Design the sequence.
């Protein structure tokens, strides 16, 4: 792409560094900013800078938070003895939206991925293991995505806490509520049969 | 969406003001910035601010430019007597990419759209009419999109320059090169028959 202005080109280049934003989309976004009052661009820049330089992580669960402890960890009504292990803050938001979970979280910050050069040391695994070893935790729920990286991470943590007297569970995999069986993939359908639950239990949750 | 941090929420809100960026995408982009070094966010903010506050428009054609005259208008080898009227800078870039055009441009900055509250006064129509009245222009090529707004804008300009001894043309509409006739829409196919060209002419352009 040939730009008629170096300023425009620089802005488009910087914008297209964001994931999923190509040069064309970046140009569209930048031209939109040009049509808007200057204050809009200033606000965007300021909000991004403030966020990037002042953001905090909860000292307990590594969730993004403005305080030392996030709202969930600071809430005395939540069960500290259950920890749901998730990849990032979006998973916390998704599970919180269900209103089905009253325990704590632990945000790993990613998954072990040798391909991307992410090892256990890059994640917050050590502090999770520490929490388990302190003995207050009764159950660890693995809620990572079921990819090879997710499974590897689950297994690595599982080995690290071996010997601790806690229950480890993983979220149920199965057919989505409302989905037709014939369109489900084989692995998911297979698991949903293997891990079937008593019918009475399913009645209670409706 | 419930955010665990006001800083994060503000950044996501600002980002999701951009066209085509919803809250989810904005969150993904913002979390990406959080994973990158702080310098990346600073660079993005700085490039956007620089662009927004220092950008210039060519005094002749209203194209975006770092100089008073854009490269095209400043180029003595380009034909000043032909002006291609386009909606925005992306159209200039698209036509320049074809290497088929050696005239000047005139960037309107939009189309007349009563629905969006854009009247002739919001566009650079006055300076185009002025250029035509000064008498150096021989041909005006309308290259706006063929929507109701585009057609209205073309017609408005056409009426404004009525009486000036210039040729007005519009870019050819027809079947895309390589497309199958059976999949073309009726209007386009109809126009391509109505505005058929001598076969010898098509041979010359291949």
Sequence:
């Amino acid at each position: 792409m040939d730009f008629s202005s170096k300023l425009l080109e620089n802005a488009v280049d910087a914008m297209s560094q964001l994931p999923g934003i190509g040069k064309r989309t970046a140009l569209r976004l930048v031209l939109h900013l040009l049509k808007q009052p200057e204050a809009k661009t200033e606000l965007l820049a300021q909000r991004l800078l403030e966020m990037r330089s002042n953001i905090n992580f909860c000292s307990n669960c590594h969730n993004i938070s403005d305080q030392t402890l996030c709202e969930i960890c600071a809430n005395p009504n939540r069960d500290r003895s259950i920890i749901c292990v998730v990849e990032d803050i979006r998973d916390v938001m998704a599970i919180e939206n269900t209103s089905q979970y009253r325990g704590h979280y632990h945000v790993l910050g990613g998954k072990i991925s040798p391909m991307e050069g992410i090892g256990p040391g890059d994640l917050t695994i050590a502090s999770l293991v520490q929490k388990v070893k302190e003995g207050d935790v009764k159950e660890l729920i693995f809620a990572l995505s079921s990819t090879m990286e997710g499974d590897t991470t689950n297994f690595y943590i599982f080995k690290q806490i071996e010997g601790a007297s806690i229950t480890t569970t993983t979220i149920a995999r199965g057919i989505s509520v409302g989905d037709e069986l014939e369109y489900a993939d084989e692995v998911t359908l297979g698991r949903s049969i293997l891990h079937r639950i008593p019918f009475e239990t399913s009645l209670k949750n409706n």
Notes: The domain at 6-54 of chain B is CATH 1.10.8.420 (Helicase, Ruva Protein; domain 3). The two ends of chain B are 55 Å apart (CA to CA). Chain B has two domains: 6-54, 70-171. Chain B is about 45% helix and 10% strand.
